């Protein structure tokens, strides 16, 4: 038979109901608050115990113009090609700069003092000195200063344990192996000279331990680079902000200052090197130009003597001045070309721009040469010779001036970098940011708690209303609220089982608290059963459920008590021969029950017991047999049920879970009416549906359902409502 789900405004159990989720959060508010509070406490503890990190910062400026007057610098200026800020940033981060800082500050030597577990650093920061119970830990006022540590390659990165001794002595270990002993201030050798160690200072009590490691230079550089950062302020400002993080603010300030000085020094050396190269080049050109000048002057004098002092007219003088200017500029470009050719290839933009400028000047000179060809021969000769003299003379003078400028520049090179703000450590730690960290971790805790509650409610969504069972085609005969009195009775019974000295007369809720809302709900079930069993083939009622621990026995016993109080004779048969516990409600033993009857070890009259409730009898499960299902399939079980039906008005059979074993399907064939119990919030609708289908596949029809242990929760109030009310008799 195919069951159709009812439709309506109420969400199905596969949908996400925001109202229900809100109710789930309200139901679990104490759990959420507890988890959030635990995270908040953990955050406070964390920020108190975490090692504070300090930041040192400095400000440097890289000027666009270097102040270096040489041909290469002039060409760069002409083309607008100045050193890029990105290049300077990479220089600051380079191993060239950071490696020198590692060497100067000996950052490749790491010294770690042994601390008291968990809170040692915190106590030392609070200035706590060595207590009497501590031996190997290092406390406030105790320190180790390693003056020198040289190791062979195989010892790089390996931890050495230094233990302070008496009167300035110490012992050096690798793991638990003693490498030797030494004294403060002396250079000691260990492991056949593979380790050379000089301890400059050791201020610690005997037994205090330090871990000393000589890291590789590359590892120290990478570690420093991870704590060092530099960025440009603004766009193309040339002002760089350098920061360095460290646990020790003085070390951070000192190391950052060293990095700034190294960067400044290498910049000055780089500028000075350029001046030196230009000076060498110019000095190489001086002898050649001087020789060319002497040769040109001798030729001009000889020509004048031969032609008796030929003078230039005004037009020729004008042409000569222009030719001299062009040739002088071409000579300068030839020197620049010679210097650029040593640095760049012909495809470089600097070299190409210089060649284009030279070609333009040569074209201008070609046009002047055409004008010169129109002059008289004597004027042409004197013009050419005068041009050679004047051009060579100007080039020679310029060379001497350049040499003088380069010499001054080399002697006074300051580079294009200056330190605006010296390195300084900020007074307070930058990590952990205590308020922010506490707030963030607390929020994370609250979020995780909320997520856990929501995910759990979605994944473990049990039945929460009778409507959900009716959607499965199962009529709900009763919704039984969770009883606080019943829980108290259960606890009393359990205590009684542990302490045999005190006795509980009866653990039946209907007998002890007849006004309880759960008992009232069972009275309503009694009325519904009266009409439901009118068409039944017998007076047997099977109470079953899909899983254990859903309250089947509670329903069976208390329903039987309520019906018995109405004047009928009722017997409750505990057919769960594996784990049945109907007998516990009556403070009795399980032995001598159903299993003994089915095994022909006892008669029916021997196992029927009278309960403290008038009209209510019960049959315990008996001793657990090895083959319960086979016993239930025997004819003895059918004969037992027939005998009980004759003696009593109603036979209530409490069965094992449907989805656990097949006993319920066997029993259902012998009972005219079957009811399915589902526990609120525990059994998902799908599980109930599977249990019903399993019984139906065995030929057992489930007459209706009982929703047990309903709790008053915000989730159900928002989603489905809650309809049970206490209505007790007034004492006035």
TrEMBL record:
InterPro entries, alphabetized: AAA_dom, Bact_polysacc_biosynth/exp, GNVR, LPS_length_determ_N, P-loop_NTPase, Wzc-like_C
Q: Has the keyword Membrane been applied to this entry?
A: yes
The organism that produces this protein has a lineage beginning with:
Bacteria, Pseudomonadati, Pseudomonadota, Gammaproteobacteria, Oceanospirillales
Protein name, UniProt field: Polysaccharide biosynthesis tyrosine autokinase
GO MF assignments: non-membrane spanning protein tyrosine kinase activity
The record lists the catalysed reaction(s) as: L-tyrosyl-[protein] + ATP = O-phospho-L-tyrosyl-[protein] + ADP + H(+)
NCBIfam families attached here?
eps_fam
Q: What is its EC number?
A: 2.7.10.2
Provide the transmembrane region boundaries: 30-49, 436-455
| Protein family membership | Belongs to the etk/wzc family.
* Gene source species: Billgrantia ethanolica
Tell me the ranges covered by the Tyrosine-protein kinase G-rich domain, including all copies: 377-457
Q: Locate the coiled-coil region(s) and give their ranges.
A: 265-299, 323-371
């Amino acid at each position: 038979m195919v069951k159709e789900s009812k439709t309506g405004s109420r969400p199905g159990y596969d949908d996400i109901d925001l109202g229900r989720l809100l109710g789930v959060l309200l139901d679990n508010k104490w759990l959420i608050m507890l988890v959030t509070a635990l995270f908040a406490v953990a955050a406070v503890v964390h920020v108190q115990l975490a090692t504070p990190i300090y930041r040192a910062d400095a400000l440097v400026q890289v000027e666009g113009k270097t102040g270096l007057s040489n041909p290469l610098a002039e060409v760069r200026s002409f083309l607008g090609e100045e050193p890029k800020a990105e290049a300077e940033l990479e220089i600051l981060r380079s191993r060239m700069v950071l490696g020198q800082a590692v060497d100067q500050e000996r950052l490749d030597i790491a010294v770690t003092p042994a601390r008291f577990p968990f809170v040692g650093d915190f106590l030392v920061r609070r200035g706590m000195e060595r207590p009497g119970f501590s031996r190997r830990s290092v406390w406030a006022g105790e320190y180790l200063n390693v003056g020198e540590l040289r190791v062979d390659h195989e010892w790089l990165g390996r931890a050495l344990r230094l233990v302070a001794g008496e009167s300035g002595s110490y012992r050096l270990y690798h793991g638990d192996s003693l490498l030797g002993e030494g004294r403060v201030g002396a250079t000691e050798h260990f492991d056949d000279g593979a380790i050379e160690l000089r301890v400059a200072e050791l201020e610690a009590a005997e037994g205090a331990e330090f871990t000393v490691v000589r890291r590789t230079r590359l590892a120290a550089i990478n570690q420093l680079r991870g704590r060092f950062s530099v960025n440009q302020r603004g766009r193309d400002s040339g002002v760089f902000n350098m920061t360095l993080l460290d646990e020790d603010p003085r070390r951070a300030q000192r190391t950052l200052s060293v990095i700034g000085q190294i960067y400044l020094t290498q910049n000055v050396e780089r500028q000075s090197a350029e001046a030196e190269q230009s000076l060498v080049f110019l000095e190489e050109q001086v002898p050649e130009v001087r020789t060319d000048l002497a040769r040109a002057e001798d030729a001009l004098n000889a020509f004048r003597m031969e032609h008796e002092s030929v003078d230039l007219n005004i037009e020729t003088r004008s042409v000569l001045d222009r030719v001299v200017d062009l040739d002088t500029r071409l000579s300068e470009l030839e020197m620049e070309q010679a210097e650029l050719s040593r640095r760049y290839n012909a495809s470089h933009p600097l070299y190409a721009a210089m060649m284009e400028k030279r070609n333009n000047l040569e074209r201008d000179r070609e046009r002047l040469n055409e004008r010169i060809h129109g002059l008289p021969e004597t004027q042409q000769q004197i013009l050419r010779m005068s041009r050679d003299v004047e051009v060579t003379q100007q080039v020679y003078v310029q060379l001497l001036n350049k040499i003088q400028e380069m010499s001054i520049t080399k002697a006074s090179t300051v580079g294009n970098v200056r330190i605006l703000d010296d390195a300084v450590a900020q007074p307070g730690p930058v990590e952990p940011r205590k308020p922010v960290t506490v707030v963030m971790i607390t929020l994370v805790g609250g979020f995780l708690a909320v997520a856990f509650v929501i995910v759990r409610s979605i994944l473990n969504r049990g039945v929460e209303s009778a409507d959900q069972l009716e959607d499965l085609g199962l009529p709900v005969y009763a919704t039984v609220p969770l009883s606080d009195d019943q829980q108290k009775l259960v606890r009393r019974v359990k205590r009684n089982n542990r302490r045999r000295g005190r006795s509980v007369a009866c653990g039946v809720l209907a007998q002890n608290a007849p006004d309880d809302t759960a008992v009232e709900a069972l009275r309503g079930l009694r009325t519904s059963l009266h009409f439901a069993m009118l068409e039944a083939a017998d007076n047997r009622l099977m109470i079953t459920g899909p899983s254990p621990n859903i309250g089947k026995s509670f329903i069976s016993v208390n329903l039987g008590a309520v019906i018995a109080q109405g004047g009928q004779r009722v017997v409750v048969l505990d057919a769960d021969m594996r784990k049945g516990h109907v007998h516990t409600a009556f403070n009795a033993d399980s032995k001598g029950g159903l299993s003994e009857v089915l095994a022909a070890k006892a008669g029916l009259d021997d196992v029927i017991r009278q309960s403290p409730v008038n009209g209510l009898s019960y049959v315990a499960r008996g001793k657990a047999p090895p083959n319960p299902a086979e016993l239930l399939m025997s004819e003895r079980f059918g004969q037992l049920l027939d005998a009980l039906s004759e003696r009593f008005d109603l036979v209530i059979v409490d069965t094992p879970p449907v989805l656990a074993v097949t006993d319920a399907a066997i029993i259902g064939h012998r009972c005219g009416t079957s009811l399915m119990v589902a526990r609120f919030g525990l059994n998902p609708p799908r599980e109930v549906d599977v249990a019903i289908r399993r019984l139906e596949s065995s030929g057992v029809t489930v007459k209706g359902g009982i929703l047990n242990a309903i709790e008053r929760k915000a989730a159900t109030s928002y989603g489905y409502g809650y309809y049970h009310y206490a209505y007790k008799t007034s004492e006035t």
